[in-house]
Design brief:
single chain; mainly alpha; 11 helices; about 75% helix
């Protein structure tokens, strides 16, 4: 008789291998596609089109004054716009799947039958999710590195990793909201709805704060506030890390107490 696997961490990574590979390629491709337009902006062929945009729209497309430097372009077009949003979608889908998704498939009941504590099961799921986010984000670095070689530009690798860290931290926190509600309630509509709704409102408010100064105080509640500028500071990294830790602690407390039907 085949024994049930007790290493949920490695089993999750194995089961999600196609998911990981797909997102790795997707983030790499998006990064390459976005950065490949930089020479046109640098030479002024496209940048002029955005010169008369309103402040609100420039917040969305990026500060056109920075488009002529590769660092400014990467910060605005990759890490202030596309990658955080894509990574947020990845994070919410991933952590919802690791909780509600597996429960609806009956996998959670099987896992709970193993001689493992609930906290151990949830911890391994959490670590697997974080690992998947980290591996997928490497695709962003690969995309930047490859494209910089082709367009003959140079940019600090350390700065790239700091920008990736900011995007991963903010998107991870949104995923951990789904993880928290999924662990506590086991309801997909609530887990995905709350996490997606908060992510949408956060991005909307952060996008409008330039044009609507009255939102300045409220905007501090947006997680995107702590990822702007894209080169995240130690202070903002700690804020996002602490917020994520709170979501994790609540997840463990609620999961321990929840009655999961068999």
């Amino acid at each position: 008789m085949t024994m049930l696997p007790q290493n949920i961490f490695s089993k999750t990574l194995y089961q999600k291998r196609k998911f990981i590979f797909g997102w790795f390629l997707g983030l790499t491709a998006m990064t390459i596609l976005t950065l490949s337009f930089f020479p046109s902006f640098k030479n002024g062929e496209i940048g002029k089109t955005f010169s008369d945009l309103s402040p609100a729209l420039q917040k969305v497309v990026g500060n056109t004054d920075s488009f002529r430097t590769v660092g400014g372009y990467i910060g605005q077009q990759i890490f202030a716009l596309r990658i955080p949003l894509l990574a947020t979608v990845l994070s919410i889908v991933l952590f919802n799947g690791l909780t509600v998704g597996e429960e609806r498939k009956g996998l959670l009941e099987t896992q709970l039958s193993l001689p493992l504590k609930r906290s151990t099961i949830l911890l391994q799921k959490l670590l697997a999710g974080i690992t998947i986010m980290a591996v997928a984000s490497i695709g962003v670095f690969v995309g930047i590195w490859v494209t910089l070689l082709f367009i003959h530009e140079h940019y600090s690798y350390l700065t790239i990793w700091r920008e990736i860290l900011g995007a991963v931290l903010v998107s991870l926190d949104f995923g951990l909201i789904a993880f928290m509600f999924g662990s506590a309630l086991g309801k997909k509509s609530i887990a995905v709805g709350v996490a997606s709704g908060f992510a949408f409102l956060s991005y909307l408010i952060s996008s409008l704060v330039t044009a609507v100064p009255s939102l300045k105080d409220i905007e501090k509640l947006s997680l995107f506030h702590y990822q702007s500028p894209a080169i995240i500071s130690l202070r903002d990294s700690l804020v996002l890390a602490i917020v994520g830790l709170v979501f994790v602690l609540v997840s463990f407390l609620m999961f321990q107490r929840r009655d999961i039907g068999t």
